[in-house]
Amino acid sequence: MREVARVDALGRRARRLQVRDAFAKLSRQDQDVITLCVLEELTTSQAAQALGVPDGTVKSRLSRARKRLAELASPLADDRPLFEGGAR
């Protein structure tokens, strides 16, 4: 049982590193929108205000940034989403 937990922990660590590396390859603009909307859980309106852009711009940037992140982080070890939650 301990061995399974250890393997799971190693897999999670490898996944975090893979996502972190992929995140670092994103443009600054993509990093900002993911940080605000996904990590900090701001609404698109709040992120738009922080970035000084319209709400629609944040929505389209977030969509493109998520897609880029998923592409850069592939292939993944499993089918779980890269991140959950996000702009409301």
Short description:
The protein is an all-alpha fold. Helices cover 72% and strands 0% of the residues.
Protein described:
The chain contains four helices and no strands. With 88 residues, the chain is mostly helical. Helix 3 (44-51) crosses helix 4. The termini are far apart.
Tell me the layout of helices and strands.
Blueprint: H1 2-25, H2 28-39, H3 44-51, H4 55-73
Helix pairs in contact: 1-4, 2-4, 3-4
The rounded Rg comes to 15 Å
- Choose one word for the global shape: elongated
Please report the distance between the alpha carbons of the first and last residues. 39 Å
Beta strands, count = 0
Order of helices and strands: HHHH
Q: Report the structural category.
A: mainly alpha
What profile does the largest beta sheet have? Answer: none
Strand content: under 5%
Share of helix, binned: over 70%
Mean pLDDT: 86
Instruction: Count the DSSP helices.
Output: 4
Poorly predicted tracts of residues: none
